[in-house]
What we know:
The complex is a heterodimer.
Chain A: H1 2-14, H2 25-30, H3 35-58, H4 68-90, H5 92-98, H6 109-119, H7 124-154, E1 156-157, E2 160-161, H8 176-203
Antiparallel strand pairs in A: 1-2
Helix pairs in contact in A: 1-7, 3-4, 3-6, 3-7, 4-5, 4-6, 6-7, 7-8
Chain B: H1 3-16, H2 27-32, H3 37-66, H4 75-97, H5 99-105, H6 116-131, H7 137-162, H8 177-192
Helix pairs in contact in B: 1-7, 3-4, 3-6, 3-7, 4-5, 4-6, 6-7
Amino acid sequence: MNKTVQQFKEGLFTNNPVLVQLVGMCATLATSTSLENGLGMGLATTAVLICSNIVISLLRKLIPNKIRIACYILIIASFVTAVDLLLQAFLPDLSDSLGLFIPLIVVNCIILARAESFASKNGVFRSAIDGIAMGLGFTLVMVILGAVREIIGAGTILGVPVFGDGFHPVMLFIMPAGGFLTLGVLIAVFQAIMKKAEKRGNNI
Amino acid sequence: MTFTEIFALSLGAILTENFIFVKFLGICPFLGVSKKTDTALGMGLAVIFVMTISSAVTYLLDTLVLVRFDIVYMRTIVYILVIAALVQFVEMVLMKLMPALYQALGIYLPLITTNCAVLGAALLNVDKAAENPSFNFLGAVTFGMTGGIGFTLAIVLFASIREKFELADYPKAFEGFPIALVTASLLSIAFMGFQGLKVF
């Protein structure tokens, strides 16, 4: 139980895939233009991550070491195709707005990184928990980024206007430049908080 | 495809629809291998090479096999396998012919497999073919190559700015990645200026 809590803490904060490991930047920046997109992308990635972690963990003793990366990618690509088709069938709007970035989950480094550094060395249960924790960590960042960019860049939250008529949205924040800027500031804030927490920990 | 179309496609891939600054493809190597200008250039050249060949191969596979036998849902899986094999090949060639560059690229060479710019270019070719009936093999190769050139342009520009960071004075919290992201944001604003070039 303690270990599970520890894993969630790592996935969400101390070893967050985006804020600390700095992987999966393309999807993070490109699909966080609104809260809905960010959440959708986060959950789609989480689904693939959990499934691939479970399968890779199950097969970890069967996969030859030399061709392991190719095997991982093949497993991941299968799950991504499944998620892609499911989204097209049940959530066509979300599928349209995420577009190219759904098939590109295949090359999201978060998934391959967890396969290589965790699922290939640990049991099924731990790997599944790791998939959930890391996926939620990613989703958390996507939600924060999506919300900030939507509020500043479009003046809405989940499509509902939050400011009065006088508000002029800063279009820049929906554009790529705003993505880089928001993520840069978010990581800086995170680093500052972590440093402070560390200092306080040392004093006690 | 006419010459004008090819020219417009190239200009788009390099400037107005730059893979890094406008399309957000290939950000991982862009942030990871941009600490030194010469490594960045090496990475850029490797990406141009892989992207050109992978665009050609995936386009042919798509039209000759996937569409003909009506198995386009296999696209993602087929494409990523082709790219993985190609990267392995480039790695072997570089190890034999240019060991210095091979050493410098290190972990990032196998990671071209997971460079979304490469898979992205292959998938974007499919979209482009659907939009424009005259889009052909030549267009796919041009798009792959010029997309790679756009990537190289972006990463070399970015690396040359990043080299100056050591002398710069900025808030402690921004150390490392945050300041790089803010720089990328400013570069991206500069690239937005090219939007006016969409004349065709």
